[in-house]
Structures are given as structure tokens and as C-alpha cells.
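Entry 14. Structure prediction run on the chain below.
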Amino acid sequence: MERPRIWQAGLLWAVLVSPALTADRLGLNEPRALWQQSAGLLVIGAAVTVARRRPLAAFALAAVLSLVAAPALFTVSYGPALGVFALLLGLRAARARPAVVVFGAVGCLGTARIALFGVDPAPEWAVLTGTLLFGCVFPWLGGRYWRQSRQLTQAGWSRAARLEGEQRIAEERARLRERARIAQDMHDSLGHELSLIALRAGALQVAPDLPDHHRTAAGDLRAAAADATERLRRIIGVLREDDDPVPVSLTPAGETVEQLVARAAESGLPVRWEPVGGAASDGVGARGAAPAPGGVAERVLYRMVREALTNAARHATGATVTVSAVEEADGTTVTVTSGGRPAADGVTGTPSPSSGGTGLQALRAAVTAVGGDFEAGPYRDGFRVRARVPEQAATTPRPAPAPYAPFTHARRRVALALAASVGAGVVLVGGAFAWYAYTETHSVLPPAAYADLRIGTSVQDLAEVLPDRSVRDAPVERAPGPPPRDSDCRYYRASGELLVSVDHFRLCFDDEGRLVAKDVVPRAGLSQRPSTDEEFAR
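Output returned:
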């Protein structure tokens, strides 16, 4: 054992044996022989020695010592030690079942000893039950609550450290995802603009009045724009991880879907804007059921239309594209349909080998992430992409439920057990004290009445003088001498004071019921008594 622990154990032993050394001298216990006191000190020392590693054994030693000293388990000498070891048992023992078994065993042993050797079983059993609850179970529950509070605190600090580490990882992850989002947005925006540049270059290349050297330059410009689009896609594919969430691109400078369609039409893409309930137009100046700019639905639908127009320009050159929007009570539906000359890969359908196969998947993920519906596939002689986004589109995922706090239910059960034990203990101890007060106050023989008693008087003549109860736990060991042979002795209290040691009277009757001896049993701590009844009465 380490030196600090030896010092702590010695201090604990000194504190616990102090009541045992002083209770007899103060008259709080019946006097005991020196060997009994020495044995009690040794048992407490053994319990202190094993209390750290074997708290259950330490409590069992203290309980056995208390039962040997008093069948009711309660003694001033060993009661504090019993409560302290019960507290240490709850604080240091992880399992509760062994302690409950020991408590039950102590109660059974105490009950058996009271039944066999007890003087007044009813109040002694009540004191046993109250001591077991207040002196054993209650401190044990307090120790368990303390233990669980410490474990909860440690778990809280561990969880805080883990959450801090997870927060750093989440921040790094968020930074990487933001980088991927920006890269994807650059891909969508620049890819769309490069596609429009390629469209303008293609229109310029086929112009009939263009010189040959300008026609060649326009063709080179178109090829360079297409090549730049493909290289941009490959670079963004390297930056973006497979499990990154699909970003919702921002609309450039607040541009709406209608304005996007108009700009594509101005660049030479054969696209028409057809709002439901409005006149069809080539996209310039048309107004209709376009989603409100700035919202989540607008950004998602804007990205879907932009991606569809980009793929139409790349893979369905010359095909007529129609963009229609329907605004409903619970959301907005936008449809992009390619018609006329079918494209080899569709507008955004089955992508070409160079496209990487992520067009439809990215659009579907973006729409479903905000609670919308997405569908794409062949339609008549072309291809159609349709997306429906609810009006109140989800912006952030629902927060996960708070994790279960460890030990919360266990601490609640311990608190309920504490409250139940306190209530039961109050009832039992209150009832035991009431019974104790009744029996003690109804076994008092006034000193003046004792002085008037005469030897030879029959018990029938003394019936009106004697109390209706006699003392059951009489201090026989303090009697001035042995009682007369073959006599029946009764003990009475000289005072009705409670919770203190008082003088007792011993009255002995023979077989015929006549008083043959009367003696004064001094209270604990006194050795000299009045020599005559007159002096005692005075």
C-alpha cells in the first residue's frame, strides 16, 4: 500500500474507533469488558484495511460486529463505522446485487437473533429495520449516486473531447466539401458558358458570307471550347469526392430560369420558353410561371435547366428544346424536352463515354435532396427531363436526435430508491420511537413509591402502585448483586427520560408472590447510590 493510502487508512480508523472508545465512558452504551472493546477495534481495523479493494467484505465485518454488540444492529460505538462502510460500498462497488444480498442477510441474521435472544422483539425489530435503512441502505444509495455522478462527469468530459475532435474533422470535411461545391459550381457555370460559346462559333462557322480563313478560325474556336469543357469536367471530377453531397448552385447575379433560357436562345440554341397559361416565345422577354428567384426551389430548378441546355448544346446540336414551367399550390414543375432530331445521348439522358455518367445522377440527387421528384428518359422522338420541387424546399437535414446521456436512468433509479428509503425509514423509525417512548414512560416507578415498598408485601397489594409494564431490556449487568435464589425479578425505570441512561429498580418476588428483595440499579457511569430508601427518596 502506498504511503498516502496508509495515512488515509490510519486517519479513517482513528475516526471510526473514536465512538467505540468514548461511548462506554459517557454512559451511551452498557459497560463492556476490555477484551470486547479490543476485539471491536481490531475488527474495525481489518475492515479499514480491506475497504479499498474489498468494500463488500469491509461492510460485512462492520455489520457482524454491530450484530454481535446489539441484536437490533444499532450501537453508538459501531453505528458510524457501519454507515461509513456502507457509503464506501456504494462508492467503490460497481455491482448492486451483491450489496442487496448482504443487506438481506444482515436483516435475516438480526431478525433471527432478536427472535432467539431478544428481550422485547417488536421494538428491537423496528430499530433493526430503521438502522438497516438509515444506517446501511441510505448511505449505500448515496455512495452509488456519488459514484454515478462522477462517472457521468467523466463521461461528459470524454464526450466533450470526442465531440471537439469530431468538430475539427467536420470543419475540415466542410472545408473540403465547400471546395468541391465551388468547383462543381464552376463546372456548371463555365461549362454552360463554354457550350454557348461553342454554339455561337458553330453558327458563325456555317455563315454563308464568312471568308474561309474566318470559317477555319470559328471551327478552331468551337473545337477549343468543346475541349475546354471536357478538360474542365475532368479537373472537377478529381476535386469532387464520390460521397460529397450534390451542391445547389447559386444563380449568377440573380438570373432566373426564364432569363437563362432567353440567353441560350440569343446564343443560337433553338430553345423555346413555354409557361403554362402564357404565349410561347423564343425566350426573350417572355413572362410566365417561372419560379421566384432567390429561393431553394429556384436554385435547384435553375441548375437542372442549365445542365439540360448545356447537354443539349453538346450532344443534340440542332434539336429543338422546349422549357416549360408550371407553378402549383404546393410546388413548381419544370420540364425540358428535346424534339425534332433525336440526340445520340439525349439531352441529359444516357451520357456519352466522355461525360463520365454523372449528369442524371447529379441532377436526381440535387432534386431529391430538397424533397422533390425527378424523372428523365426518352420522350417521343427526343428526350425529356422533368423536376418538381416543393414550395417549402428543405434547406438543411433534420437534426439527429440527441444522444443518450449515460447513467441518466441509473441516477434516476438511485434517486427514487433514496426517496423511497427515506420515506420508509421515517415511517419505521417514527413508529419505533413512538413504541419506545410508550414502553419507557409506562414502566416508570416513582422513587417515592419505591421508598414506600415493604419487604413481605404481596404482589396483589402492590398492583395499584406498580406500573402496568416492566422493563424488558433490563440492565442486569449493573445490578448491585445477584437476585435471591428461586425469585422472579422485575425491573422498573426510576425516571421517564428518554435516550439517556437512568436508574432502575429491581423488585424480586418469591413463589408465593411476596416481595423478598428491592434494589437500586444505578445508571451507567455511577458507582455510589443512596444507602437507605429515605435518602433515595430525598
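The longest strand covers residues 331-339.
Filed with the rest of this week's runs.
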